[in-house]
Specification:
Heat Shock Protein 90; alpha+beta; 302 residues; three-stranded antiparallel sheet; binds adenosine-5'-diphosphate
Length: 302
Amino acid sequence: MLDLWLMVVMFLYAIEIPLSYYPTPVRFSIDWYAVRIIGFFSSSLVLIVMLYEITTLYGRLLGAVRGRRQEREARMVTGEAVAATIAHEVKQPLSGMITSADAGLRFLNRPLPDLEEAEAAFKQIVAGGHRAAAVVDGIRTIFKTEGRKRASLDLNDLIRETLALMRGDLAKHRIRVEALMDERLPQVVGDRVQLQQVLVILMTNAMESMIAIDGSRVLCVASHMDDDGHVGVSVADTGTGIGPEDTDRIFNPLFTTKSDGMGMGLSICRSIVEAHDGRLWAAPNMPRGAIFHFSSTRSVSA
Ligand code: ADP
């Protein structure tokens, strides 16, 4: 660029020199003004161009540095989100396994050991271990769009299975469960482990919000089908509910209002549901609490 403009300046000089000396222009004549103007441009042009070039260069450099910084921050947030997801997802089956192990030990340590109950507890530990392994496998697929194990499944069965899984915790906190299943529900296509994760996270959140307040504790899980053939599930609680200022933020990664929360649960749920071409949203429950709905657009005939 600079070479080009230097050539332009040299060209102007080449015009200026003969104009100024052959013949010498009369003062304040048109020739005289022309020589002055050409002289002014030839002497300042390179300077102006250089200033312009340097300013745009610094501007671009600043943009690149900012871009690099944003990219690094985004990568850090993703790393944090992955770490928080692993911790969040593995915590639930692990705490279930610890509870079952404690129960098993208590059954064995009785003066007259209850072997049947102990065996049931150990079976639950084995099931919990398998679930934790499946969850770890599933974590990778949450962050990528391919490789999910899609199969046709019955959402009502999945809800029953998940409620059975959480029965111990729900009973411990005196939470009454209402299951309103639409038995005409068609099969849906999806990843069983991931959809169960959504249910576990929504039910755990519902449970935690109900534990936080006194009063009747009712968890209502319902499945339904709308006129367009879309299958939906709702998880309703009678807990604290969601403040209007938080409604949009609760699905953001790392947003939490709990002292020991990680803020990953709902963002994981949303990415799983959206990967199933569905939608997940929250609404207030009456007279209090929150309802989380998710819908799936993929259904196959039973
Ligand atoms: P975490 O449970 O670790 O806080 P989540 O992403 O699962 O992360 O939830 C984010 C926030 O959404 C919670 O901290 C809570 O404030 C709110 N929330 C989620 N579920 C419910 C619910 N059923 N009732 C009231 N608030 C809820």
